[in-house]
Amino acid sequence: MNEQEREELQRDIAYLKDRQAILDCVSRHARGHDRHDSELITSCYWEDGIDEHGNAINAGPRYAAWVNEDHAKASILHTHNLSTHNCEIDGDVAHCETYVIVGLLDHGGQSARLISGRYVDRLERRKGEWKIALRRSIVDVAIAGDASMITYLGDLGYTHGTWDRSDPSYVRPLEIGTPGVKW
Amino acid sequence: MTANDIEQLSRDVQYLMDRLAIKDCAVRHARGCDRYDSELLASAYHEDGVDEHGDAINPGPKYPEWVNAAHQERFLTHTHNVLQQVCEIKGDVAHCETYVIGMFKDKEGATSRFLYGRYLDRLERRNGEWRIMVRRSPVDGLLVGDASMLTSPAFIRQGYVKGMKDERDLSYQRPLTLSETPADRW
């Protein structure tokens, strides 16, 4: 392998690691939302980072408190499902767009809605770490429907997520039999 | 590290780059659809590529025109949500199956539809670039639901930004800033 090939190999590996790190940041953010994990959510932003959700503009460190309250007002449980993700890296700055389908179970548990939108992000790498400098949120489509039959999942013994560290996703190592909250 | 090790490393990295490039192609296509970006859409196909959507069979370069008109006719807004991709690469040819959820806000009335299906693609790498040669689009299910939430006072009060069908969409802004133009709101 000559010098040029070696350099290209290093560049490719650095690129792959950057793409993964950026997607991981966005994914961690979604997980933070769904577990109401303030520490995790906050870790995705730089201290001087900013988040925009409609009229609500929050400094990175304040965003978690705002969004946990907002989600609790709007629902009893939710998941942020990420899909179409495109990313342009230019040195230490990356612009990415990540589609999200947010599933929200309404208060009362009789209905649910899916909100389809996009996160448009500018991330920055500082000391080798990628975090969000600016996030803007777009809503594109929504669809609502009947969720009243959800209690049948309880009959089958299914568990649902919780908004704290007792959620089974935190258990290490993962084992069958760790208690969860059933529907 | 032996010469063999380095060769294996090289091959592994190439494989990861190829997998990412092939996924990026499907992502580029989805984004092109939702932003009515003909140039971006066309860039997902080779010039001699072909797209099948039901009875509509279009050469790659003609696909943007067809899909933009089809979407514009029926829907206000839509998102093409590209999910997991299973991919087989053999030299310069790749076959992949990409799951997709399409969400569409109907033009008329307060309904939306949720379609789910798969893109079946045969891609070819030419001059280092992976693009679609053949795309087929099976649809596996759908449901129709209520979209009245989008016009409710409670939602409108929150001031969320809307998607745009051209380069005014926030996703084109470089660098991304909080500047007001051209954010259109619900």
Key features?
heterodimer; A: 183 residues; alpha+beta; six-stranded mixed β-sheet; two-stranded antiparallel sheet; 4 helices; 8 strands; 31% helix; B: 186 residues; 2 domains; seven-stranded mixed β-sheet; globular
Protein described:
The complex is a heterodimer of chains A (183) and B (186). By secondary structure, chain A is α+β, with helices and mostly antiparallel strands. Chain A has a single domain (3-148), classed as Nuclear Transport Factor 2, Chain: A. Chain A has helices spanning 3-35, 38-42, 60-74, 152-155, and strands at residues 45-53, 56-59, 77-90, 93-105, 111-126, 129-146, 159-160, 181-182. In chain A, the strands form two sheets. Chain A has a six-stranded mixed β-sheet, with helices on one face. A two-stranded antiparallel sheet of chain A has the order 7-8. Chain B has two domains: 3-151, Nuclear Transport Factor 2, Chain: A (Roll); 157-186, no CATH class. Helix content of chain B is 29%, strand content 41%. Chain B has four helices and eight strands. Chain B has helices spanning 3-35, 38-42, 63-74, 153-156, and strands at residues 45-53, 56-59, 75-90, 93-106, 111-126, 129-136, 139-146, 161-162. In chain B, strands 1, 2, 3, 4, 5, 6 and 7 form a seven-stranded mixed β-sheet that branches. The termini of chain B are far apart. The chains are: A alpha+beta (183), B alpha+beta (186). At the A-B interface, helix 1, strand 1, strand 3, strand 4 and strand 5 of A face helix 1, strand 3, strand 4, strand 5 and strand 7 of B. Strand 6 (129-146) of chain A pairs parallel with strand 8 of chain B.
